[in-house]
Amino acid sequence: MPTESPVHENSTTQTIADIQKSAKQKTEDLARTFVMPPVDPGDEVLWFPLADRNKPPHIAVVRANYHQQIEVTTRGPVGQEYDSVRHVDDPKLILNTNYRKFGAWDYTDGAKAKMKKEKDLDERLTKLEKAVGELSGKRPKKSVEELDSPRKQQSRAARPQQPRQNQDGK
């Protein structure tokens, strides 16, 4: 297939080479702005050999976390260590096939469920805090002293006054 064959798109004629160049530029832009999801040493993750999501993953333990990659040790009778493992969504896996030889990682299903539950709880807590704030904003606020003063006056009247003593008990 010639690389200079025209492709019509919205009344604009582009060559396949131009489209490929544009796609590569977009991928490079994504790679510059990509932020690896958070993961900590000791966390279990799914490790995909050769970064192939179509093959069954292995359970691995994170050994170290760097800016855009992690080190993992796979579980099993012979735990293999892999350095420079990138997240499955990292665009650099598309741009540079050399990165794929280290594999790719993703969260386990259990970790994804836990993160979703935490997110849902955070959203519910935010809504509750907002509702409480709206309710408390409708009532005049009383200071702690104002709230305690009737009880303090009653308790002072009920107990007899005792003379104060200094540190020596005199």
List the helices and strands and how they pair.
Elements: E1 6-9, E2 12-15, H1 16-33, E3 44-48, E4 58-65, E5 70-74, E6 81-87, H2 92-95, E7 104-107, H3 109-138, H4 144-158
Parallel strand pairs: 6-7
Antiparallel strand pairs: 1-2, 3-4, 3-7, 4-5, 5-6
Characteristic key phrases:
five-stranded mixed barrel, two-stranded antiparallel sheet, 4 helices, flat
Oligomer: single chain
* Global morphology: flat
Number of strands: 7
Low-confidence stretches: none
**Secondary-structure element order, as H and E?**
EEHEEEEHEHH
Summarize the structure in short.
The chain contains four helices and seven strands. It is α+β, with helices and mostly antiparallel strands and 170 residues long.
Structure report:
- By secondary structure, the chain is α+β, with helices and mostly antiparallel strands.
- Among the domains are: 44-107; 109-158.
- Helices cover 39% and strands 22% of the residues.
- The protein is built from four helices and seven strands.
- It has helices at residues 16-33, 92-95, 109-138, 144-158, and strands at 6-9, 12-15, 44-48, 58-65, 70-74, 81-87, 104-107.
- It has a five-stranded mixed barrel. Strands 1-2 form a two-stranded antiparallel ribbon.
- It starts with 5 loop residues before the first strand and ends in a 12-residue tail after the last helix.
